[in-house]
Amino acid sequence: MSRKTGYHAVLAACRVMALVLAGTAAAGEPPIVAAAASLRHVFPEVVHVWSAAGGVPPEVSYGSSGNLYRQIAQGAPFDLFLSADEEQALKLVRAGRTEGEGAVYAVGRLALLVPLHSGLALDASLADLGRAIGDGRLRRLSIANPAHAPYGRAARDALVRTTLWPRLEDRLLLAENAAQAVQFALTRGASGGLVPYALTLAGRVSAEARHVLLDASMHGPITQRMVLLPGAGAGARALYRFLAGPAARRIFERSGFPAPGARPK
User: Fold this and answer.
1) Secondary-structure class of domain 110-213 per CATH
2) Average pLDDT estimate for 190-194
3) What are phi and psi of 222, to 5 degrees?
4) Which of 68, 145, 168, 217 has its CA 20 to 30 A from that of 181?
């Protein structure tokens, strides 16, 4: 089966699943979704398939998982929270602010993104970053802010484990979230960034930069969990079931998110 044929087969399966699930949802207000910024590349495709098959199109707000958690904890009227940081979702679970424990919908991976104007090597071990500090090739390195973004913490983990953190800390461009970290990495003021692998696959990004996937052992796990929030309507519940099902899973996998429980490469 060709790649193109395989894609259309997946799309058809997604539409069938969406029709089955959407049929259980009463028409009404669109679900209000809080989604991690690392999903900017893949979630619009999921929403397109869902809505094209008759599902109620959601209103989506993207941001860092930590910031979205704080908004929800302070009463923001979201129906569904797709966190890139499992702990942020579980804090809401423990506080009784969710309906059930939710489900793991994706596992994140980290990549080194090197724009075409950069002199950095595509080195998955990150050893070239150390050499680039000394020879002047490294100006700034972009990462999401570790204070509230899980991909930022993963980037810090990788730099700590390779003993580069003390040397690079004053050269970091801290972004508000993972999507902004990609934007910063592509600017002329940066030499690259440690960003979500899934976001490196986007058309514009892949046209302006190269990337290499880091080994999963270089950082802590990036387990992404979704939870339904109290008061979620039928449309949000149907969307949640779709996101937890095999059709959406195939879209996530094709877009750079390994299946939950998959063996790291």
Assistant:
1) alpha beta
2) 97
3) -110, 85
4) 217
CB of 119 closer than 8 Å to CB of 242: no
* Contacts of residue 122, Cβ cutoff 8 Å, sequence gap at least 6: 112, 114, 210, 211, 212
Is residue 22 predicted with pLDDT exceeding 90? no
What's the confidence (pLDDT) of residue 262? Answer: 59
Q: How far apart are CA 105 and CA 82, in angstroms?
A: 8
What residue type is assigned to position 265 of the chain?
K
Stated pTM of the model? 0.84
Q: Report the top-level CATH class of 3-107+223-254.
A: alpha beta
DSSP state of 126: -
- Please report the pLDDT score of residue 1 as a whole number: 44
Read off the pLDDT of each residue in 198-217 and give the average, rounded to a whole number.
94
Q: Which of 45, 28, 58, 85 is nearest to 226 (CA)?
A: 85
Give CA torsion, residues 70, 72, 78, 79, to 10 deg.
120
For the chain, give every domain's residue range.
3-107+223-254, 110-213
